[in-house]
Amino acid sequence: MSTVPEIKFDSYYLYDEITDFLKAAEAAAPDLVTLDSLTTTPEGRQVWIATITDPSTGPAESKPAYHVQANVHAQEMATTTSALRLIHTLLTDENAAELLKRVAFYVIPRANPDGVEYTMTTCGEIRSRNETIEDKPNGLVPQDLNGDGLILRMRWEDPLGPYIEDPEDPRIMVPRRPGDEGPFYQVHAEGIISNYDGGPIQGATKGYDFNRNYPTNWKIEIDQADRPFAHPETEAIGEFLQNHHNIFAGIDFHCGAQAILRPCSKPDAEMDQADLGLVTMIGRKAAEFTGFPMMNSRDYRLDWAPPISLPGSSNDFAHLQLGISWYVIELGNGYTSAGISTEEYFKSNDEQREREFPRRVMKAADASPTRDVFVPWQEIDHPQLGRVEVGGLKPAAIYHLDPRDMEKISTDTTGFLLWHAARHPRILLSEPEATRVGEGVYRIRANVGNGGCLGTRVMAGGGLRTHEPVKARLEGICEDAVASRPRVYEFDALAPGAHQQLEWFITADAGTQVTLVASHPRGGVATETLELG
Q: pTM value?
């Protein structure tokens, strides 16, 4: 009998390894896991989604659902580890078994497999997707020039160059400052230069950010496409979120300075105040589980900088359009593994960010057996520039957490996700009774309530999605058997602990079985069957 694979913490997952993990998990727990592809990427990879629930209590679509997505940004592979750790826990932890009877989990461990494969195999820098700008004058196109399979940096001496080797750690190239002694360098991405005439070198790559491609507060910026959901990956994820009305909460994993980023881009004074209270309460709980500071997405910035705007972000889309309980969790990066806290980074000055922090990162990397972050400079003949050197720091030095750190981090995030998922709305029926009031006439009564910790609306400021009604109906009788009252009750919303009374008068024979069914997309389905006496 196959078993759920253990999570590795000595390195990050390539696409084939993720696929193998997910298929092995499905084989080990075929009654709990269904593996599907949301879409095929431009390079032919699948965006896998694992649906996890206990089918003995109903299919996934009949239950409140919790959505998790990871690795939207290519260089943030630690997020995949957190997503896989959640899957492993759901399938192996006895305490999760009860939750799976009530909740379905939708988990996308790698939302951007093409981008991640590029950066993991070449070390090339990429946000989500790169596109070459053809025929750009003096346009640099990243490319492996020395045949080592990597795309790093290239440098050459220039008296007017803006960089020098760091005096304390010459592996690090730092901006020159007044009083520095040379040699000075030009530093660019390793690559060829199209239409080179000796003028200033310009990047010939347009980078796209998938987390600026959602339709809420969307506008064209330098790292965006010309329309929302322009990429097959974001389009498929967006359609999934919009089509699955049972999703009540979710997490988008990222890898910046450690933080719990709560919605939304509006100032707090402009948010629905009930939403703000709930968002803050849950965010504080996330901070307790993880030790990460909670902050508004607007305040995820250097202390002296103005509030930031994140047009087209998942946080705004989930909160403002879908009305679900959503957070972005920033797991950390190379600074984190070097002991640089979120607070220290946001309070830092240019000197610290340009010199002190990289030195600390390199010191931590030197002490780690899993951190190979520097390639010695190698002289080559460049087709346009002549003699240059290729090598330098890999992006892993700054962007990547030490994989070993993920054992604790993924444990903490999984603890919060399970707690958060257990707060779901929960439709319940209580005190069902059938009373004979006349020959062949019965009165059916019950209460429908919300036994969960979140209201069925979840977030009040979430547009039309938050106004789906709670419905209660009778089954097992013919269409014209209801003599009074509506056949189907609809209630706008049920807050936690709230209930509404149901009452029908029906005509039916003794011995008939009548089933009461109450439901809400985010609260699940409750049934009670009565036999008429």
A: 0.96
